[in-house]
Amino acid sequence: VQLQASGGGLVQAGGSLRLTCAASGTIFNISKMQWFRQAPGKQRELVAAITSGGSTTYADSVKGRFTISRDNAKNTVSLQMNSLKPDDTAVYYCNMYTGAQNYWGQGTQVTVSS
Hints:
4-stranded antiparallel beta sheet, 54% strand, globular
């Protein structure tokens, strides 16, 4: 099973993008779906996470601007990003975790111009 992320692109500061990640097949018992990002020269960081029960966690830097959601039936996770800032520029990676296995998407580039 592979994860395919889409929705990245170039946007001006203050704009919005929606990232979506879909699994190519069925993944059972996904406990957590997450989005990470990695900017040039920086470590990969957790942006947002959502559990199977719908509980969400956000990095302080994106609280109030980003919203994570999931569709358990379709094995998809989305990240709505509003009020984007140049500091949000990074490659964004989706992740699905079952407790036994960790699945990663290939990454999608988000570039926010000032």
